[in-house]
Design goal:
This protein has 339 residues and is of the alpha/beta class. The chain is 53% helix and 12% strand.
C-alpha cells in the first residue's frame, strides 16, 4: 500500500508508467479513497465505485474501508513479466498519506517506509539543508539524496547551445575583423590619389588617418543602428514563434498527464476557469509558473551598448591597417603614378 500527498509525487502517473482507464486519481488527499490496477480489479471482481476492506494482519479487529475512484493499467515491461508479479502494480493499492497515517496510528507494530521530498530553489542550499535536518534530529540511518545529476543532465543541451553560441560569436568577430581589414585596404588603394593630394597640400599623417577612422566609425554606427533595429524586430517575432511552439508542447504534455490521472482537459479548464493568457498553476508542477504568450523585448540597451562597443573596437582595429598604409605612402610617388 502506497500513500501520496500530492499529484506531483505520483511519478508513475506523471511519467506515463501508469494510465487511468476508468475513473480518476482523486485530488482529495484527505479521504479514504484509492486507485488499483486492472489486474487487481479483474482478479478480485472489483469495479469503479466499489469499496474494499483493508485488514490489519497483526490486529484483525482493525478494518478500514477504501473507495475505489480509479482503475489503471501499467505500461511498463514488468507488467507482462510473471516473475515480477509480486513487485508490480498488481500487488499495489495507491491511496493517500493520511490514510496510511490512520492505519499506523492504531497499531505501533506496523511499519512504513517514508520518503519525503523537499524542493529547494538553489542547488547551493543542498548541503546546508542536509546539515540542517541532521542537526534537527535526522537519524544516522537515513540519508539525504538529491537529483542534481538528473537536473544537470537535462540542462546539458542548454549549456551546449550557450557554448556553441559563444564560439560562433568569436568566429564571427574574427571573420568580421578580417573582412573589415580587407575592405579598408581596398578603400585605401582606391583613394590613393586623394591621400596623395591631401598630403601634398600639408595635411599630417595623423590627421589624415583620423579622418579615415571617423568615416569608418560613422558608417559603423549607422550600420549597427539599422542592423540592431532589424534584428530586434526579427528576434521578437522569432522568439514569439518559438514560445508559441513551447506553449503548444507544454499544453500537449499537460494534457497527456491529465489523461494519465483520468482527468479530461475540459474538466480541468472548468475547474481553473482561466484563459490561456492568464497565470496558471499546473497540478503537476512543483512551483507557481506564470504563462506568457508574448515577449515584449529581446534586445535591450545593455545589448545595444555591447554591440556598439564591439563594433567600435573592430572598426579601430581594422583602421590600424589603413593607418599603417597611409604612413608608408609617399605623396610625390602617388601623384607621379597618377599622372
Amino acid at each position: 500500500m502506497i500513500g501520496y500527498n500530492s499529484y506531483e509525487d505520483i511519478k508513475d502517473f506523471v511519467n506515463g508508467n501508469y494510465t487511468i482507464i476508468e475513473g480518476e486519481v482523486s485530488e482529495d488527499f484527505n479521504s479514504s479513497n484509492c486507485v488499483i490496477s486492472e489486474e487487481l480489479a479483474s482478479l478480485n471482481d472489483l469495479s469503479l465505485g466499489d469499496s474494499i476492506t483493508v485488514l490489519d494482519t497483526k490486529n484483525e479487529k482493525n478494518a478500514y474501508e477504501l473507495l475505489i475512484t480509479g482503475i489503471y493499467k501499467e505500461n511498463t515491461e514488468s507488467s507482462d513479466n510473471i516473475s515480477k508479479m509480486f513487485s508490480n502494480s498488481a500487488n499495489e493499492i495507491i491511496t493517500n498519506v493520511n490514510f496510511i497515517k490512520t492505519i499506523l496510528s492504531t497499531n505501533e507494530d506496523l511499519s512504513a517506509t517514508i520518503t519525503p521530498t523537499f524542493i529547494l530553489n538553489n542547488k547551493e542550499n543542498i548541503d546546508k539543508f542536509a546539515n540542517e535536518v541532521k542537526v534537527k534530529g535526522l537519524s544516522e540511518y537515513y540519508k539525504v539524496d538529491d537529483n542534481i545529476e538528473e537536473i544537470e543532465s537535462a540542462t546539458n543541451s542548454i549549456k551546449n547551445v550557450k557554448i556553441f553560441a559563444f564560439n560562433f560569436l568569436v568566429i564571427t568577430l574574427i571573420i568580421g575583423g578580417v573582412v573589415l581589414i580587407v575592405i579598408n585596404m581596398i578603400n585605401i588603394r582606391e583613394r590613393k590619389y586623394e591621400i596623395g593630394v591631401l598630403r601634398t597640400i600639408g595635411m599630417k599623417k595623423t590627421k589624415l588617418s583620423f579622418q579615415f577612422m571617423i568615416e569608418l566609425l560613422i558608417i559603423c554606427i549607422l550600420s549597427l543602428s539599422i542592423g540592431a533595429g532589424i534584428g530586434s524586430f526579427a528576434s521578437v517575432k522569432v522568439a514569439n514563434n518559438l514560445l508559441a511552439s513551447e506553449i503548444a508542447n507544454s499544453k500537449n504534455e499537460y494534457s497527456n498527464i491529465n489523461k494519465n490521472f483520468g482527468r479530461s482537459d475540459d474538466k480541468d479548464m472548468n475547474e481553473n476557469n482561466k484563459s490561456d493568457s492568464e497565470s496558471i498553476r499546473s497540478k503537476f508542477r512543483v512551483a507557481d509558473i506564470s504563462q506568457v504568450d508574448t515577449i515584449n523585448a529581446v534586445v535591450d540597451f545593455k545589448i545595444l551598448a555591447e554591440l556598439l562597443g564591439i563594433g567600435i573596437l573592430l572598426t579601430i582595429l581594422s583602421s590600424l591597417a589603413s593607418m599603417i598604409s597611409i604612413s608608408k605612402f609617399s605623396p610625390l610617388t602617388i601623384l607621379k603614378e597618377r599622372s
